[in-house]
Design brief:
heterodimer, A: alpha+beta, 3-stranded antiparallel β-sheet, 6 helices, 14 strands, B: two-stranded antiparallel ribbon
Chain lengths: 253, 162
Amino acid sequence: MRIFGFLSKKVGDLTVKYSNLPESYIKRSYEQVYWKNPTGYPQYPKAQVTRKKFRFTTNRPWTAQFRQQNETGVLRKKVFLEPVGEWSFFKGDRVEVMVGKDKGKQGIVTQVIQERNWVFVEGLNTHLRVVGKDKDFPGVTVQSEAPLLVTTDVKLVDPENLKPTEIEWRYTEEGEKVRVSLASSRIIPVPKSAEETIDYKSKDLYIANPDKDTSADVVTKITFEAKLRTFEMDIMESMGIKEDRVPAKSYWY
Amino acid sequence: MSKITTLVNFISKRTISLTTPREGKRNFRKFMIANKRGSRIHKQKQMTPEAELEIDKRGVRDVGYNLNGQFITVPEMIPELIVPDLKDCDLKPYVSYKADNVIQSKFTAQQLFDAVYSKKIVTDFKEGKLDADGLPLQPSEEEQLQPDEAVARAKKTGSDIF
């Protein structure tokens, strides 16, 4: 049931890509398994009692703050999420706000939270909040952006006439999948900031750690020689381990 | 009269036992009762060869075998970690993000055959060094092996034939 597998994925593709972590690790880091049937007993099916309802926020799923927000026993109200089939909003996209105080204004997307269909636009849909208020200290007023829903509050901007448009994903002649504005049929390219991750702003800007990172030429070097030995036999030969004993003859019936 | 015979069926017929009927015996066959769990009788029975359940080793493999009630240790079954010297190894724990993703095709048995045996077969055929049956006149080491020798070689330490 492929749909079930697709729907049960709570963490978005963009989040996984942003983290540079394997998806299985992310799942492992936020899952809360309360009971798992022991393995190796045919009478017990592969069943587990696990927490299924998580509250996704700007805190990423592998962080400690996410764990704190989703502690055992903490029940939150259900967040109703419209499932977006093809995600079309990336970091660095030019977008127009359709609702709220900043209706009609255009801005650039700074953050995308796929698990909540959220998009944060720089400087728009903001509110003021006071940070660090003390008895003596009046506190610092900070302007922070509120999230906007991708389905209703925000629309991508057509680069030709800078107007908000509906878009569609289509294939070019080369076979590349691109976003096309329905109003003017112009391609809206995916911005360069979309390839940003925790470790780098873009791959060519990444500075490798010489002690821990294997360089590209070493990785792509082919050192394999086809030999008629298994892996263990090859190691025995290279390490000089001699084992000439042959196992006793055995028969299959 | 018939009413009395039918009424007899409704009189409770209970028996009294002066000893506990099953003496604490319960069906442990269905539930996982690891080594220290279960009633006293069950644990005693587990210690004899008529144990009801398999002794739960918790994933640890035996280092030998049981023969006539005695456990014989086999030194070859004790795992030994073989760690190579990483002095001249250029490979580091992580890979730089700048490196391209290497996608390799599967290394099949056909490819192994081509790499190991095919060259000699082709050169022998072209130079005419094959006799009437098609067997090589100057067989290489692998070609000289007899079937039982080859099987013995394949089953030596490190084999993946089980």
